[in-house]
Design goal:
single chain; alpha/beta; Rossmann fold; eight-stranded mixed beta sheet; six-stranded parallel beta sheet; 16 strands; 18% strand; elongated
């Protein structure tokens, strides 16, 4: 058993290292801070290429790369019950007291939370995304989220906009949802030792080159900015299906000497790219928070971003220029940012970011949510099933059947392998 007041937490998501992104960084940094506070943290994710089995990371962070291969956008194939045996084994072997799932789009997260609740564990869910309500994909995802959150103990969102979105999508009671923003490692993301010359203005873009991140918007914005400002140069880092469109734009407008395409940039080299620029450009069409903006601001860059999702909550007004996600408005915002540059002090911006965002603070606030979750009672199966029935006329009945089957499979595993150390 661990120390009194200390937790043994299982973090679960399809998104973890060696993949890079906001969710991956969040899980890693949060885990490291919780370990330093004396908690035990274990991560469960799927296998990445030849990375399978148990691995250890900094400060003894134990990672289970379960032998499930991703089939779409780093997500594992939904099995409903296929992950029950291995989830149960990890929970018992590591003597877990609480399960923390991350990201609504993660199949492994939804399945692990379902199995954990069946076994009587307290579960916490963190939503890192914003979804709509009209398109087919969002409708299906919202129904899955409604199923998972029907019996979740507590939930966390990374912005107030994200909380409002999650509550509307899932039907979860607002008092069960907490807002804890992301943070940035300010020790890693520091400004350049010397201030850059402003004879040539460098605008940095670091993003996955996909539709959701506004790559099509960049195709229209970059040529116009280059036409209006002969001293502006762009550095574009990132890869994705929209990279071809950006390269075609560069060829069409003969901007090879003013638009550098770096391709995928490893996270360890992100700072070295950021400190070569004056302005950071984020063109996302939807964003719950955007850690990239924090990293850029911590390096002393002025940010120009689309006014979407939780982005307006991230930085003070004097650190960011917000614009509607259309080309004309974005070009005007970049022009305004260029005129603001003489008033920007990178070191001062970095020092302010230290006070505004820190992972230890995120960990302390998350620990409070854990404590509240562990104080909640465990309702019997019939009471839990009544919650699923409220999820829809037909969906509610299907969800109930899924949970009953999961419960019976768990009982069979207990008979076969023995009930020792199970929560119930």
């Amino acid at each position: 058993m661990g120390e009194p007041g200390k937790h043994r937490i299982l973090m679960v998501s399809d998104f973890f290292y060696p993949n890079f992104g906001g969710v991956e960084n969040h899980i890693y940094y949060l885990s490291q801070c919780l370990i330093k506070e004396g908690h035990k943290v274990v991560v469960m994710t799927h296998a990445y290429q030849n990375r399978s089995g148990v691995r250890y990371m900094t400060n003894g962070l134990k990672v289970y790369y379960v032998p499930w291969k991703p089939f779409l956008m780093q997500n594992t194939l939904p099995t409903f019950f296929g992950t029950l045996p291995i989830t149960r084994t990890i929970l018992i072997r590591e003597n877990i007291s609480l399960v923390h799932g991350h990201q609504a789009f993660s199949t492994l997260c939804h399945e692990a939370l379902m199995h954990a609740r069946t076994m009587g564990y307290k579960v916490v869910f963190t939503d890192h995304s914003l979804y709509g309500f009209a398109d087919v994909g969002s409708i299906h995802m919202n129904k899955v989220l409604q199923f998972t959150l029907a019996d979740v103990t507590q939930a966390i969102c990374v912005s107030h906009t994200s909380k409002e979105n999650t509550v509307l999508r899932s039907g979860l009671r607002p008092e069960k949802v907490y807002v804890i923003p992301n943070a940035v490692d300010t020790a890693m993301f520091k400004p350049a030792p010397e201030r850059l010359n402003r004879d040539e203005i460098v605008i940095v873009v670091l993003s996955r080159l996909v539709y959701r991140k506004g790559a099509d918007l960049l195709v229209e914005v970059i040529p116009e900015v280059c036409r209006l400002h002969p001293n502006v140069r762009f550095i574009v880092g990132g890869d994705g299906p929209k990279r071809v469109r950006l390269e075609e734009m560069r060829e069409k407008h003969s901007l090879q000497d003013r638009v550098d395409m770096l391709g995928a940039v490893p996270h360890a080299k992100v700072r070295s790219v950021l400190i070569t620029g004056h302005i950071f450009l984020n063109s996302s069409l939807t964003e719950a928070f955007c850690i990239a903006i924090l990293e850029a601001a911590s390096c002393g860059l002025l940010t120009v971003s689309t006014r979407v999702g939780g982005v307006p909550e991230v930085l003070p007004d004097d650190m960011v220029v917000l614009a509607a996600p259309d080309p004309t408005t974005m070009v005007h915002a970049i022009t305004r940012a260029i005129h603001m540059l003489p008033r920007i002090d990178p070191q001062d911006m970095h020092n302010r970011m230290k006070k505004l965002y820190s992972w230890p603070d995120v960990a302390r606030r998350t620990e409070i949510v854990y404590n509240r979750a562990l104080k909640c009672s465990n309702p019997p199966l019939l009471d839990r099933l009544s919650r699923y029935l409220t999820c829809g006329t037909w969906a509610g009945k299907i969800f109930c059947i899924v949970m009953i089957v999961d419960f019976l499979l768990w009982r069979l595993l207990q008979l076969w392998q023995g009930p020792s150390k199970d929560v119930k």
